[in-house]
Amino acid sequence: MNAESTALAAALYGSIITTVVPVSSTQVAEMVKLLENTFRAVNIGLVNEIALMSHRMNIDVWEVIDAAKTKPFGFMPFYPGPGLGGHCIPIDPFYLSWKARQSGFECRFIELAGHVNGSMPNFVVERISEALNTAKKAINGSRIHLFGVAYKKDVSDMRESPALDVLELLQRRGAILSYTDPHVPKLEHGALEMRSVPEKDVSAIDCAVITTNHSVFEYAVMPKRFPLVVDTRNALKSNGAANVFKL
């Protein structure tokens, strides 16, 4: 690991990548990646906490973010959701925190963001319960259908997907579960073993939950098709239907 190996590595990556940024050591390179993912995790944690706060104060957090991002400088929009997924953002900050403890440093900021982000699937289940309560129903015995189980939009990757946590929590509370995700035709996770239901065939459900905002879903018709809709991704935008419950 010296100037020669750095030049060789840069030449290798430069054959397929437009811009290569050499740094002084492998430790710096690793920290760059950890900073990038931790930056996103912490900011998502902040906006998730703002979403929880806004719910208590009866404020539309999505409207707040849309207005705030009109500022031409000093603000970068991040968005709340049902939790973190993927193999980087949910994991790298905790790896960094573990590594820092080996040097006697406590990452309280990172740990707090992780706690907030990790609590979001529970909040989604609370919102589902609140939605069902308006129809005088409990989660136990209700037919709840998730739209999207991949960890983010338009991918098939399910690693650390928050939808899995939501499904597990609902299963423990006695829900009758189903899902639609054209990118994930079959789901096997712990005691869960399910197959994706084509969107057009979804019927006779008590509550639809938008957990992953895939582009293929027909969002505009959901409030009319289903008695209750819990939207964790703001996929329905400013739809003001009484049966739509946002995060």
Describe the structure in your own words.
- This protein is α/β, with parallel strands linked by helices and 247 residues long.
- The chain is built from 8 helices and 7 strands; from the N terminus they run ααααααβαββββαββ.
- The strands form 2 sheets. The chain has a 5-stranded parallel sheet with strand order 2-1-5-6-7, covered by helices on one side. A two-stranded antiparallel sheet has the order 3-4.
- β5, α8 and β6 form a beta-alpha-beta unit.
- The chain is globular.
- The termini are far apart.
- The mean pLDDT is 95.
Reconstruct the topology from this structure.
Blueprint: H1 3-14, H2 26-56, H3 61-68, H4 92-102, H5 108-118, H6 120-134, E1 143-147, H7 162-172, E2 176-180, E3 186-189, E4 192-195, E5 207-210, H8 222-225, E6 229-231, E7 244-246
Parallel strand pairs: 1-2, 1-5, 5-6, 6-7
Antiparallel strand pairs: 3-4
Helix pairs in contact: 2-4, 2-5, 6-7
